[in-house]
Amino acid sequence: MQSGQLAGKTAIITGGASGIGAATAKRFVEEGASVVLADIQAEKAEALSRDLGASAKWIGLDVTDPDDWAAAIDKALEFGPVTTIVNSAGISVPGSIEEIDLATFKATISVNLEGVFLGCKIGVAAMRDGKGGSIINVASTLGVKSGALFPAYSASKGGVRLLTRSVALHCTEQKYDIRVNTILPGAIHTEMVDAYIAAGEQSGQTRDQVIDGFASVHPMKRLGRPEEPANAIVFLASDNSSFTTGADIPIDGGYLA
Ligand code: NAI
After folding, report:
1. How far apart are CA 64 and CA 150, in angstroms?
2. Ligand 1 mean position to 174 CA, how many Å?
3. Is the pTM for the entire model greater than 0.90?
4. DSSP letter at 145?
């Protein structure tokens, strides 16, 4: 479907090689945007970029590295002024407070929160003097309601929600034409969830039991599909959401209701 909601937009999508980021890249191109797939998995980003055609480029990027961000901005400028940053890169390593070590906690905060901080900081600098823009941060329902196995992940995603609000308020105060929003996905069937399925299988559960376990906590009794959060990101990137900033939008089958 090509309706051109994003015609003329140039987006950097972190985590663009996989899952929600990859689905977002596909939807963005369908809607007329140019995209830079920025991911630590450079080969996967390159392959998807090739599939998406002339509207897509790729770059190897570690979201925690400011130099990589500067290179991603330069890459996007080959299309035109940057209008959109989607911060989708993320990691999830489950483990209770008694199981998780400090190194894992720090790594989670580094990728999931510091990486989004850099995306916002560099995004605002790139967009404030241009034709305006939109930053979309991918947090999680686990940034609102936690679970015993997610001290690091929930801390990082709760941080993303409030970081988003602060950046949104700053941009409006400064009269920058930049909106900043968060989406809160529930369980979405991507490689991140596949890793949980594999771990469940190793501990004796069947694949269906693990999937049913995820599905059962969502009122809609199913996992989400990557294109479902991607469609919300399209809305937030488009001018259709022109009065929306500092918001957290659940894409969660009713989980937070
Ligand atoms: P995914 O594992 O399919 O994709 C994550 C991508 O991030 C991968 O391509 C990975 O290479 C990339 N990445 C990881 N560390 C990176 C780094 N340091 N620099 C650059 N890229 C890096 O997972 P999914 O599900 O697409 O996750 C996307 C976002 O959605 C994440 O922030 C995740 O926490 C969030 N999320 C996912 C949910 C789910 O159920 N799948 C639920 C709620 C939030």
Report:
1. 21
2. 31
3. yes
4. S
The answer to whether the CB of 17 is under 6 A from ligand 1 is yes
Using the mean position of ligand 1's atoms as its centre, give its distance from the Cα of residue 15 in Å. Answer: 6
Measured in angstroms, how far is the CA atom of residue 91 from the centroid of ligand 1?
6
Q: Which residues pair with 101 in a beta bridge?
A: none
What is the DSSP annotation of 205-256?
A: --HHHHHHHHHHTSTT-SPBPTHHHHHHHHHHHSGGGTT--S-EEEESTTTT
- Give me the DSSP letters along 42-74: HHHHHHHHHHHGGGEEEEE--TT-HHHHHHHHH
Among this protein's residues, is 255 annotated catalytic? no
Name the residue at shortest CA distance from atom 18 of ligand 1: 62
pLDDT digits (tens, 9 = 90+) for 50-91: 999 999 999 999 999 999 999 999 999 999 999 999 999 999
